Amino acid sequence: MSHNILVTGGAGYLGSTMVPELLAKGHKVTVVDNFMFEQNSLAHVCYHPNFSVVRGDVRIEQLMLPLIKKADIIIPLAAYVGAPLCARDPVGASSTNHDAIIAMLKHVSKHQRILMPTTNSAYGSGDKNNFCDEHSPLNPISLYAIEKVKVEERLMQHPSATSFRLATVFGMSPRMRIDLLVNDFTYRALHDRFIVLFESSFKRNYIHVRDIARAFIHGIDNFEKTNGEIFNVGLSEANVSKKELCEHIKKQLPDFTFIDAPVGKDPDQRNYIVSNAKIEATGYKPQVTLDAGIAELIKGFTMIRNTRYGNV
């Protein structure tokens, strides 16, 4: 079944991978993006008759209202993503990540479906064993995670909503980000050949960017299973520490060296093991392994030798 889908921030890291997949499924897709990174990451779908693009800011209600009204499904990706970018512009972050979403929720009808990315960084450090599932208490550390928690609470009051608490994303995308952890470590392993690790035992979960697109399509196609629910979305085989991640990279780049810093503290204090059993029980399973994603990144980073592809 074809839907009219509104994707805010659709030219970003997630959206530029997701939008072509939605179009391939036969949906009509309208993207709203302010193109703050001067990207042309959707150039490859401009030929498609079911693709529309609006250059604008999601915080402007008079721009958003007519677009919201004609949408069957809304996927709000527009956000200041990650702790460093939010810290650099906290006003812009709060108005985009929180205020714009709350404003949107005031105008949607109960029949309009919202599938929203939130973050499993909201768990902070999990329980005494660092384990987290969807019932675990939330302990957001960064402004980004704090705003996402607030928005998710309001989102789940909407009768047609799904929240995907995303693991740390990796992989090549038309709007590339090098600053994500797997991407960053692989880039440095390829070009610098060494990394100094702080608190190398800290764990987190990972997920490939294409598997995020698959999760949203799964949510659309299985609305009766996903409506009104919160799901962790990650690769269950990739609950790994920073040191273990480096070991995965070293298998493909043998000249890569990593050492533990004897002193120092990572400003990002996330440390958790995440269960993805709930979404897997609905029939969703990621397809891209951590090792396959690293191999992909090595090929991609052979072409990329600058830092303009990050958010900071």
What does this protein structure show overall?
- The chain is an alpha/beta fold.
- It folds into 2 domains: 4-126 and 133-170 and 207-234, NAD(P)-binding Rossmann-like Domain (Rossmann fold, 3-Layer(aba) Sandwich); 181-205 and 237-301, Alpha-Beta Complex (UDP-galactose 4-epimerase, domain 1).
- Helix content is 36%, strand content 20%.
- Strand 1, helix 1 and strand 2 (28-33) form a beta-alpha-beta unit.
- Helix 6 crosses helix 9.
- The protein is globular, with a radius of gyration of 19 Å.
- The mean pLDDT is 93.
Helices and strands, with pairings:
Elements: E1 4-8, H1 15-24, E2 28-33, E3 51-55, H2 61-69, E4 73-76, H3 83-88, H4 90-107, E5 113-119, E6 131-132, H5 143-155, E7 161-166, E8 168-170, H6 181-191, E9 194-197, E10 203-208, H7 209-221, H8 223-226, E11 230-233, E12 239-241, H9 242-252, E13 257-260, E14 273-274, H10 277-280, H11 290-301
Parallel strand pairs: 1-2, 1-4, 2-3, 4-5, 5-7, 6-14, 7-11, 8-10, 9-13
Antiparallel strand pairs: 10-12
Helix pairs in contact: 1-7, 2-4, 4-5, 6-9, 6-11
Based on the model shown, name its key terms.
312 residues, alpha/beta, Rossmann fold, UDP-galactose 4-epimerase, domain 1, 2 domains, 11 helices, 36% helix, globular
What is the residue-mean pLDDT, rounded to a whole number?
A: 93
Q: What is the radius of gyration computed over CA atoms, rounded to a whole number of angstroms? A: 19 Å
Distance between the termini: 39 Å
Number of strands: 14
Strand order of the largest sheet: 3-2-1-4-5-7-11
* Overall geometry: globular
Strand content: 15-25%
State the major sheet.
7 strands, parallel
CATH H-level superfamily title of the largest domain: NAD(P)-binding Rossmann-like Domain
Instruction: Predict the CATH topology of the largest domain.
Output: Rossmann fold
Q: Regarding quaternary structure, how should these chains be classified? A: single chain
Uncertain segments: none
Percent range for helical residues?
A: 25-40%
Class inferred from helices and paired strands: alpha/beta
N-to-C SSE series?
A: EHEEHEHHEEHEEHEEHHEEHEEHH
CATH architecture grouping of the largest domain: 3-Layer(aba) Sandwich
